[in-house]
Write a structure and sequence with these properties.
This protein is mainly alpha-helical. The protein is globular and about 60 Å long. The model has no long low-confidence stretch (mean pLDDT 91).
């Protein structure tokens, strides 16, 4: 109702009344993460190689659904092991690492499926796959695995970020890999990641540890 009134007041030129409406606070919810065993089950579930590859790629590079369908074959550099994501959210490009394991899977997929221009062809007018189609693939795979967590396609990106933090990648690097504009957005994963707590100490105590 508040959002509706704000829109109405802006249309009628009563911006002051729109500003005076109460602010609405969003519920803060932590992202739901798939553990490594669940991910292995998920990636093995689809019958089609294309579906297995697309789900694995999303997790392996922390991609948004829209970023996946916009990928062209030319955006994959197998020699440099990079993926070029172009004009994503906030109209920014970024480069993310291409997993060696993912590289093998993509080469097999390309040799068998022979996609044209887009990495994943679909039924969209321009030949691309659709985000709706990706979500369907995810739902069908989840049904086969019996995973009962409340997860969706974007949960693969959440899992990617959390697992990188757990493996010791610093949060600024994770921010850049995800394409976040502010590190505060990335910090939510610190509440989910299982990271060893290091007690406060002076670095002088560790400076001569090996010497002593």
């Amino acid at each position: 109702m508040v959002y509706g009134l704000r829109y109405y007041f802006r249309l009628t030129g009563e911006n002051k009344r729109a500003i005076n409406l109460p602010s609405l606070k969003k519920d803060t919810r932590l992202p739901v993460i798939l553990n490594r065993s669940e991910l292995r089950k998920l990636f093995a579930a689809p019958a089609l190689l294309k579906h297995r590859i697309v789900l694995t790629l999303i997790y392996s590079a922390g991609l948004r659904g829209q970023e996946v369908i916009n990928l062209k074959i030319s955006d994959i550099d197998f020699e440099r092991k990079t993926i070029h994501i172009r004009q994503s959210k906030y109209k920014k490009d970024r480069i993310v690492p291409l997993s060696s394991y993912m590289s093998k899977g993509l080469k097999k997929y390309l040799s068998l499926e022979h996609p044209h221009i887009w990495l994943f062809n679909g039924k969209e007018p321009d030949g691309r796959y659709s985000v709706r189609g990706l979500s369907w693939v995810m739902r069908q795979a989840l049904k086969k695995t019996g995973i009962d967590k409340s997860v969706n396609l974007h949960s693969l990106r959440h899992s990617y970020a959390t697992h990188l933090l757990e493996e010791g990648v610093n949060i600024v690097t994770v921010k850049e890999l995800l394409g976040h504009s502010e590190v505060a957005t990335t910090m939510i994963y610190l509440h989910v990641a299982q990271i060893a707590v290091v007690s406060a100490h002076s670095p002088l105590d560790t400076l001569y540890r090996k010497v002593l």
